User: Which sequence fits this backbone?
């Protein structure tokens, strides 16, 4: 039975949605007097929101997110965002209408028949403009659900370092992050992405966490697919993300939670990745070596299981170091100002919010930038680099709009001496 607190939350949310719906309906009614269209709009809206409420009201915290909750969130966002745009226009028009009504009331200069008409009618062209603009995010969200979430992009960076060992000049690293296997719904698209990764010329393949949404079983049907990821000459390394600890569901016993955690760690072995749990490994080439350091999840607002000191205890301070840390806030709050120099940190986690605008050289915006200082792409401070991968999969919303799934290729280069 729902608690009073949860019940009140639902009442508030539903009330706000009803208010949004009333405003949105005003636009439809202003544009057309056809009652079939008006009633059809209301029936469809009621059916869709009823389905969303039903799914989330029956959310089982012992199971966690499912394809049903993904579908419901997709319906909610796809219908709500355009309606919010309608509300902005209709509410803005109401402000003007009220101002005009006040003027008419006090000046008593506008009459219709024998009775004063203080409040002007809604203007059709305002509703038409509102619907036209609202259609843009509606179309974008639909595209994001049906095409965008599998619109994989290979993004390449070339980084120069003064202290890169000569033997590693031209060394190529491929990074993927945030698989979230429990969200997949098209095998052909995932197999295409795996083939795309395999096409990259790479010396090392790195994965930076969140292999599942919640439970290890999500990967069962995808083991063979991800096992096809080729193993470069220096191997495949991985770390855990915040979703890999099974903390977003309710477990009957601690033993069940622990067993799931062990199973998730074992998934990495099954797909031939060396999982780094606050530890490090060297990769060697022509008598030189670089250190690969992997920490467990460390997030400013999430689980802090990462221990950078422990992970680095078997390497030298002077080593060239590549750090795998799922949450980019770790770089901001601990890594970039650390006494040891971590040359390149690879993260993920943000997904770029799966929604935003990126026009190279002109505009980069996403709501997630108000939460994370580093949220997508390559960053540099004090000679240290951070790459925030936009993610391989998707979570919460079953799509991507403007922020596409990413396969990162990073080429390390020795800085040329200035003569």
Assistant:
């Amino acid at each position: 039975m729902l608690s009073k607190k949860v019940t009140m939350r639902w009442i508030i949310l539903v009330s706000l949605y009803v208010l949004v719906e009333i405003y949105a309906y005003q636009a439809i009614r202003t544009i057309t007097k056809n009652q079939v269209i008006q009633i059809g709009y209301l029936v469809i809206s009621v059916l869709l929101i009823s389905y969303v409420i039903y799914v989330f009201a029956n959310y089982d915290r012992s199971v966690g997110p499912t394809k049903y909750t993904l579908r419901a969130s997709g319906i909610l966002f796809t219908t709500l965002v355009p309606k919010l745009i309608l509300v902005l226009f209709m509410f803005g028009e109401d402000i003007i209408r009220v101002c005009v009504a006040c003027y008419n009331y006090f000046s008593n200069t506008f009459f219709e028949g024998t009775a004063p008409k203080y409040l002007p009618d809604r203007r059709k062209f305002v509703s038409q403009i509102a619907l036209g603009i609202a259609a843009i995010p509606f179309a974008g969200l639909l595209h994001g659900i049906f095409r965008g979430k599998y619109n994989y992009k290979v993004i390449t960076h070339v980084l120069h370092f003064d202290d890169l060992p000569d033997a590693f000049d031209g060394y190529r690293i491929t990074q993927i992050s945030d698989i979230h296997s429990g969200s997949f719904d098209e095998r052909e698209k995932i197999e295409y992405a795996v083939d795309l990764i395999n096409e990259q010329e790479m010396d090392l393949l790195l994965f930076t966490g969140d292999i599942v949404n919640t439970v290890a079983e999500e990967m069962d049907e995808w083991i063979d697919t991800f096992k096809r990821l080729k193993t470069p000459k220096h191997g495949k390394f991985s770390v855990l993300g915040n979703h890999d600890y099974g903390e977003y569901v309710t477990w009957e016993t601690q033993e069940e939670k622990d067993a799931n955690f062990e199973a998730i760690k074992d998934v990495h072995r099954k797909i031939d990745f060396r999982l780094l749990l606050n530890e490090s490994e060297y990769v060697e080439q022509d008598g030189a070596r670089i250190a690969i350091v992997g920490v467990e999840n460390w997030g400013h607002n999430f689980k802090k299981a990462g221990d950078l000191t422990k992970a680095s205890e078997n390497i030298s301070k002077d080593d060239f170091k590549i750090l795998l840390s799922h949450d980019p806030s770790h770089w901001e709050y601990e890594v970039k100002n650390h006494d040891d120099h971590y040359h390149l940190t690879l993260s993920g986690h943000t997904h770029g919010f799966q929604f935003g605008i990126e026009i190279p050289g002109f505009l980069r915006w996403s709501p997630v930038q108000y939460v994370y200082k580093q949220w997508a792409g390559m960053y540099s401070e004090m000679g240290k680099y951070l790459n925030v991968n936009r993610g391989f999969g998707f979570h919460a919303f079953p799509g991507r709009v403007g922020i596409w799934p990413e396969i990162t290729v990073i080429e390390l280069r020795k800085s040329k001496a200035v003569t």
User: Anything to note?
Assistant: The longest helix spans residues 67-107.
